[in-house]
Design a protein that fits this description.
Helix content: 10-25%
Number of helices: 4
Mean pLDDT: 90
Number of strands: 15
Strand content: 25-35%
Largest sheet: 5 strands, antiparallel
Length: about 250
């Protein structure tokens, strides 16, 4: 409830982020839809502190007032912290990443995400990345289109075999998204990968499955079977899903 914060300002409209809600209470209510659900809320400006309070800034954001049952009834969190580039925000002043950078509280203008595996705790760090969390050297790739953290992919490999999926001048568009649990891509590509991999539901061919490689910035980013196949009680499920995003944003891999 944004009303319980002594430092919060209720904002009426995203394009007027310094103008508070008037006495008549007129304001916009925004609904944000994402892959597995949606949430509605109102615009608020307040102090935002991360971790133990060492990183703080004044920021504009959407305070949720309604959320869909899925995924929020199934997960231990009750909100979404958007970390896209400002072109994807509700307005120029609603980019949390930009507000953190402009506040001068970060050691560096970046954030790092570590995905835990086999009981490890996942974490996100702001202003730095932890080398002790890295499995290899860091590889940088340029953002090719503002909005998503979008990069260019030149091909996909199964084992050592190039599939030639990204031929032509445009290459393939890839959005690096920490909020997507599965690997997503155009339906025709996902269908082809499902057919080629042919993951047995009883996991009988798990040890024979090839790696999947993604060529990004001249570097192969490789996933082994344990990275793209979920094993649960002797059942194997391929972690791919179809997602058809129309032009000009798509086709897009996530």
């Amino acid at each position: 409830d944004a009303g319980v914060s002594a430092t919060a300002m209720q904002i009426a409209y995203a394009d007027q982020p310094t103008t508070p809600v008037g006495q008549d209470g007129t304001r916009d209510i925004v609904t944000i839809t994402f892959g597995t659900g949606e949430m509605s809320g109102v615009y608020v400006r307040d102090n935002v502190c991360l971790g133990q309070g060492a990183v703080c800034c004044k920021a504009n954001f959407v305070a949720a007032t309604e959320e869909s049952d899925e995924p929020f009834s199934l997960v231990p969190f009750d909100g979404i912290l958007g970390l896209s580039l400002p072109q994807m925000a509700e307005g120029p002043d609603f980019s949390m990443v930009d507000r953190l950078v402009e506040s001068g509280t970060l050691k560096q203008s970046l954030f790092g995400v570590f995905f835990g595996n086999d009981g490890e705790e996942s974490e996100i760090t702001f202003g730095e990345y932890k080398e002790d969390r890295m499995a290899s050297e860091l590889h940088w790739a340029p953002v090719t289109e503002q909005g998503y953290w979008q990069v260019e992919m030149s091909d996909v490999l199964l084992g050592e075999d190039r599939l030639g999926l990204c031929a032509g001048a445009d290459k393939c568009k890839v959005a690096v998204d920490t909020g997507t649990s599965l690997l997503a891509g155009p339906s025709e590509v996902v269908r082809m990968l499902i057919e080629k991999l042919s993951v047995a539901e009883d996991c009988s061919n798990f040890n024979d499955l090839p790696s999947i490689g993604f060529m990004v910035g001249g570097k192969e980013l490789r996933l082994e079977a344990e990275d793209y196949v979920a094993q649960n009680g002797g059942t194997c499920t391929l972690g791919l899903m179809s997602l058809d995003i129309p032009p000009p944003r798509g086709p897009l891999f996530i």
